[in-house]
Amino acid sequence: MLSVRDLTVSLGPEHAALDIVDGVSFGLAKGEILGLVGESGCGKSMTSLAVMGLLPQPGPRVRAGQVMLDGCDVTRLQPWQRVEAGHGRMAMIFQEPMTSLNPVRRIGDQIAEAVRVHEGISGAAALSRARELLELVRMPDPQMQLSAYPHQLSGGQRQRVMIAIALACRPQVLIADEPTTALDVTIQVQILGLLRELCNRLDMAILFITHDMGVIAQLADRVSVMYAGRIVETASVDGLFKRPAHHYTSGLMDCMPSRNPSARRLPTISGQPPAPGRLAAGCVFASRCVAVRDLCRTEAPSRAEVSQGHEVLCAFPLNGGGPS
Questions:
Q1: Which of 59, 229, 258, 311 is the most buried if burial means most Cβ atoms within 10 Å?
Q2: Are residues 253 and 303 in the same domain?
Q3: Whole-prediction pTM value?
Q4: pLDDT-based confidence at 320, cuts 50/70/90?
Q5: For the chain, what is the domain count?
């Protein structure tokens, strides 16, 4: 349903562009959930905004690459152009619903607006469809919530409203940008379960963005690990957790308390990610890697397949393999 190939997002003028997303590629099939995971600032959200056509203007721009939605190139179309051309069936859920919902408009009106744009119906029919969408996301007492304002709902309820708005266009692809980060653990589990249920029921593809490896383990079918604007590893969830191939991925997992239950002090990845424009000539992770070699500092690694469907951007991957 979604194919992203060599996507590069840059800041600044053409002659001095800084690539904040560098050659990112991934694909999503119907009914599949792909997790995109990495530290804050690695380019996850910028990737999602570029795919959606929502990069802030003036500011970052797509300098190269392609976004294909169900076989149609939507790379440089604005959101309204996608809707007019019939390519509007991609939606996004943002991290904090309180900054995405209008505080002075009723919930029913905000959902109905999305229904009017994408389905061409209005009035009572749009409100009826809004109620159906609230039922779909398992909102308690959906008829009453239509007349509520955002501040009258809990955090979990507001996120369900955001999911309902996203579903108004009957999306083929749903992008969820850390939608559970601001929620407590109990509500987080409910929202994750709802997304998996909707994925199966509606046969949607979901790109789920997070920094939490535990959430990835619960929800995703496949996972791509991002570092310094690049995808450094992609694998099935089982394959990644059992046999991580990139040293960065292994470091992220070592930081998880569940993998070190007896540790008095959790391991950490030393150093900081490089800033855009200050990337080293070789591997972008070389300055923080515990297994760095001379070659890593001078030559950028090529992408290699360590097993079927498991790719890594590393010259000396874990679990076997020499220079790629």
A1: 229
A2: yes
A3: 0.92
A4: low
A5: 2
